[in-house]
Amino acid sequence: MIAMWEACQANLKYYQQLFGKNFALVNNNVYGPPPEEIKAGVEKFVDSPVENPVGQQWIEDELERRGVATLEPGGATGFRGDKKSAERIQKMRQASSPPPPKKPTP
To answer: Residue 93: CB partners within 8 Å, gap ≥ 6?
Structure first.
């Protein structure tokens, strides 16, 4: 456990470069909820559409695997997410044009 913590500490600059604006260092030496600016940043990141083509393809594959025909929440077509999730997927699809290529089936 100590070795893992030390490795993470040694790589903080690398993580900052890797995650850029999506990196926040939180001092958790004091018990309590995270600072509001950290909480707001995390919520903004989580609520934003997926930009990475690999992540987009994974989402599309999962929707297909689950038989989702429409993103209507609560419908009988397999989508179990809420309206916010459906809107996020629609934004992702609009932002990524053309859509990611389908993986060939073996």
So the answer is: 99
pLDDT in tens, 73-98: 666 666 777 888 888 888 888 877 65
d(CA 35, CA 29): 13
Predicted pLDDT at 92:
83
CA atoms within 13 A on the CB side of 56: 20
3-state secondary structure of 70: coil
Where do runs of H (alpha helix) occur along the chain?
2-10, 12-19, 36-47, 53-65, 83-95
What pLDDT was estimated at residue 96? 72
Q: What percent of the chain has pLDDT over 70?
A: 85
Give the predicted TM-score (pTM) of the model: 0.55
98: cis peptide before it, omega within 30°? yes
Non-local CB neighbours of 11 within 8 Å, separated by 6+ positions: none
Cβ–Cβ < 8 Å for 78, 66: yes
